[in-house]
Amino acid sequence: FLKQLSMDLSSEFPDMKGFSERNIKYVRQWFLFYNTGNAIGQQAVAQLTQIPWGHNIAIISKCKNTDEAFFYVRKTIRNSWSRSVLTHQIESDLFTRAGQAITNFEATLPAPQSDLARETLKDPYNFDFLTLTEKHDEKELENALIKHVTKFLLELGAGFSYIGQQYRLEISGDEFFIDLLFYHVKLHCYVVIELKSVKFKPEFAGKLNFYVSAVDGILKSEQDNPTVGILICKSKNDTVVEYALKDIRKPIGVSEYIITKNLPDEFKSSLPSIEEIEAELNGSEK
Fold first, then answer.
1. Nearest alpha-carbon partner for 177 in 211, 200, 206
2. Which residue from 82, 33, 84, 102 is spatially nearest to 61, judged by alpha carbons?
3. Total number of domains in the chain
4. Is 150 exposed, middle or buried (0-12, 13-18, 19+ CB in 10 A)?
5. For the chain, what is the HEC assignment?
């Protein structure tokens, strides 16, 4: 039937494209996906027409239900995602991770800012683009993220602008170094990110609170919104995190990260270091 329909439509409308049998199958799949019996408002229907057909195909092919589908439709419209970026976000399960970090934003930021900031954070962050051993430390994690900064920015989400690694702050002659400093162009604020390759400890929140206060005092201008801190740990006890953030007055969120493709620890010693590779290359040039 679909093959004949394709031929009939192509014959009837020779100047129009999109009547291949395969595409008609997608049209049918698209209709059945959204024809669930639940009413879909005009605004939602209008959103479907704002993204390319290829994006629509990716969404109905990979999403489990219309709630998940419209989440990605709205994100695509808001962030102008390409189809490859959209596919990456679906496959990394952004729908279940967005806005899931434990934060104190509701108590420390005004309503519009707190909602947007909470939506910006994920839990967990997916660092599958890294190749690290199970026993990696913070420095290895930090360096690997900067080495793959483009993929790291994609995982952080739209709006993050990278400023620096081990960003130096001088306070009355004392030096302090922030793991990673960003500026978020949609939140209009600095974002301090601290990385921990271990389980969350309450003292981590206190240190990050200090960094956020320092950035507010040294870097933040009158036009900037309050600085936000993000602590990304290997694991966390949610109740402990909630107690740790309860009386902190600076906006802080805590998330976990996952790396499902850890390199076995026994491989680490057998891999050449950067210095060894450079020495080998220099020797071959002589």
1. 211
2. 33
3. 2
4. exposed
5. CHHHHHHHHHHHCCCCCCCCHHHHHHHHHHHHHHCCCCCCCHHHHHHHCCCCHHHHHHHHHHCCCHHHHHHHHHHHHHHCCCHHHHHHHHHCCHHHHECCCEECHHHHCCHHHHHHHHHHCECCEECCCCCCECCCCHHHHHHHHHHCHHHHHHHHCCCEEEEEEEEEEEECCEEEEEEEEEEECCCCEEEEEEEEEEECCHHHHHHHHHHHHHHHHHCCCCCCCCCEEEEEEEECCHHHHHHHHHCCCCCEEEEEEECCCCECHHHHCCCCCHHHHHHHHHHHHC
pLDDT of residue 45: 81
- Residues in the chain where the model's pLDDT stays below 70: 1-2, 5, 8, 10, 19, 37-39, 261-286
Residues 64 and 31 in one domain: yes
pTM: 0.79
Tell me what pLDDT residue 268 has: 47
Per-residue model confidence (pLDDT) at position 28: 86
Same domain, 139 and 16: no
User: pLDDT at position 213, please?
Assistant: 98
Which residues make beta-bridge pairs with 183?
161, 190
Last-in-domain residue among 96, 127, 152? 96
CA distance 130 to 247: 35
